[in-house]
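Prompt: Have a read of the protein record below and flag anything odd:
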Amino acid sequence: MDGLDTLKAKYLSAVAGASDESALEEVRLAALGKKGEISAMMAGLGKMDPDARKAAGASLNALKDEIDAALRARKAGLADAALDERLRTEWLDVTLPGRPRRTGTIHPVSQVMEELSAIFADMGFAVAEGPQVESDWYNFDALNIPPEHPARQEHDTFFMHRAAGDDRPPHVLRTHTSPVQIRAMMDKGAPIRVIAPGRVYRMDMDQTHTPMFHQVEGLAIDRDISMANLKWTLEEFCRAFFEVPSVELRFRASHFPFTEPSAEVDIRCSWEGGQLRIGEGDRWMEILGSGMVHPKVLRAAGVDPDEWQGFAFGMGIDRLAMLKYGIPDLRAFFESDLRWLRHYGFAALDMPNLPGGLSR
């Protein structure tokens, strides 16, 4: 069969000159495709006599194999060249300094919870926890809150849905962390010293209140505890929390169903230049409620009020964070604004402690 050498030179040259895989595919189709030149010559072998067909078929198969091998080699070469170019353009110098890695921050509420825990742990208080969905008994009855109290109405408290005919005791989203104190006394008995930080829920929705907020309550029960111990505990807490050398507290008579006597506690402060200063000035600011635990509360928790007595107090964690860190708007606590979080947030590994400083 004449012209095979010319055909071979033609296609080997075309394969070598293909600049990319698309051009190489065009060469393959022209030579070896169903309608390609070599494929057409293979189809014509049937018209030859047996001897000529045998010789021509061997020559065409050899040509086909050689061109196919050249196509494969060229394709591999193009792929290597493309990879080299990609590596060249995507090259990264690993010796260059890396980009600064953004890290998350601790929310001010979480920070203040850790600070509270550190301060009260130093005074011998353990941290107690309880469920956020509480029974009516734990949230109200055990705390000497009478059935007619406004807090037990739906305009004040979130009651869980009950099906018609369900006569089981109602459950509520806890309105304070006081039920944790009841559970702690029932579990551990007396003497006991605990704080109970956590989320609480009330139907307060305006510029200064949110339906969910954070509260910490404290409880100390022993044989000879008095209001004097309560006063010292709160003074030491305020001095450590606000990181000032001294504080002055004022106790005002009040009423809470679960304490008797009860007292609202004010702290001396000043607002000169729009900046809060604790422990100085001629103004007073209410910060918490407190009192001696009511005997009915002790009895409900299984503690004999003829043998044991103690004090309790409660304060808002969100408000403490606002006062200490100069946060003007309560609503910002719950808006998940990254700019706000980066500004007011705390480094994740800077755990507060008394020797090293609470708010480093």
Observations:
- DSSP finds eleven helices and twelve strands in the chain.
- The radius of gyration is 41 Å.
- The longest helix spans residues 50-89.
- Residues 4-89 form one domain.
